[in-house]
Amino acid sequence: MFDELLFEALSRPKTDIGDRKRIVGSSDLVCAFKAYHSKVNPKKRALKDLLIFSRGDGREQTIREAMMWLHQKGKLGKNTEMISQLELKHIDYPAFMAHLDITLMNQRVMSIVEVKSTMNLPETLYPGWFYQGTFQVGLAKMAYPDKIIRCTILAVDEAKGKHRKYICDVDWQFDHLVFNELVEKAKKIHAAVRANDPSGVQPEPSLLCSKCEYAAECPAIWPDTRQPLDLSSHEDSIAEYATVNDTYNKAKKRREAIKNQLEFFVHRVSGDAANTAKTLFGQSHGFDVKLQAREQFRVSSDKLKEKYPEVYADEEIWDKSSYSFLTVKARKDFNERLEEEKPSQTKGKKKVAQQPVVEKAA
Ligand code: SF4
């Protein structure tokens, strides 16, 4: 009963925006395919997922409360009003709207703060965040034509507590062309939902795909063309995985070499005791060292098969599970490109042949 109530509470809309099918919001512009399905075939999330996502909401709420406190103390500028969830609508298409996380407004300037919680802080804006910022600034310009509009995307790393600001203000040079393209995309989403026909909306893969509940039916994720998936939006993560995995493999080898070296020395100086004692102790200036002989027992499947073939054949005794195997290998053309781009830096050095080949069972 408690789980059901918790589920109901966590599933409630964050803002009272009415029927989602009738409107297109700034977050819908990240992926038109997802936006369509989230309106026409909304999926019920598991309670576990809702609890995971609530972590991000918590970070956003923390920022909001901090800004509210600063505002009350007058630290965000005199005569500045702070508004939470300000609703903006397109002048010609009122169904296209945005709800701004935090807005600071004075006579001259309107500052939008959009808070994002993420597992990784990207160096530059994700395209989806850029679209949201552009759309919000575009609608704000329509609603407040006499004001200077600024927009900051404040991203918080959920795990590490780090944050980064991505400024999209007057210096960012609001791009009308991009805004107009987003309005066209909003029109397509709106029309597709009204017609109950997704043929006019396309998937737009990005890092957000990893959290998308429509990935299972998304043609961008499971193409039937036998062409490789375009993972260029995950370039940073893939490169980091390759580096981390290479370091991990090297560390494992080095650990084994050091262990063998120490074990050899301890055995040599312990003489016969090394053959009988189960534990040998040692000390250096800074460390206690313990070398233990431990026994382990496991069933040999070869011997089981040979001695008790009928038991071996009984499927019920086997716990079957599957695991994924991820291989990341630097591409040849990537290496060549790097070589071309950095002729002076790579000259005379071992070049990108150092790019690690990674094989990892997860
Ligand atoms: S998996 Fe990615 S491309 Fe596909 S619908 Fe989801 S967000 Fe869009």
Major sheet details: 6 strands, mixed
Q: What's the helix count?
A: 11
> Per CATH, which architecture of the largest domain?
Alpha-Beta Complex
How many angstroms separate the termini?
Answer: 36 Å
CATH topology category name of the largest domain: Lambda Exonuclease, Chain A
Name the average pLDDT. Answer: 83
Shape summary: elongated
> Could you tell me the strand content as a percent range?
15-25%
- Give the number of DSSP strands: 10
Percent range for helical residues? 40-55%
List segments where confidence is low: pLDDT < 50 over at least 5 consecutive residues: 345-362
Write the element-wise H/E pattern from the N-terminal end onward: HEHHEEEHEEHHHEEHHEHHE
- How many discrete domains? 2
Features:
10 strands; single chain; 41% helix; Lambda Exonuclease, Chain A; 11 helices; 362 residues; disordered C terminus; alpha+beta
Indicate the topology:
Elements: H1 2-11, E1 24-25, H2 32-40, H3 47-72, E2 81-89, E3 96-105, E4 109-118, H4 127-143, E5 148-157, E6 163-167, H5 176-195, H6 235-270, H7 273-276, E7 279-283, E8 288-292, H8 301-307, H9 309-312, E9 325-329, H10 332-341, H11 343-346, E10 357-361
Parallel strand pairs: 1-3, 4-5
Antiparallel strand pairs: 2-3, 3-4, 5-6, 7-8, 9-10
Helix pairs in contact: 1-3, 2-5, 4-5
The structure holds iron/sulfur cluster (SF4).
Iron/sulfur cluster binds at residues 31, 33-34, 203-205, 208-209, 212, 214-215, 218, 220-221.
Describe the structure concisely:
The chain is built from eleven helices and ten strands.
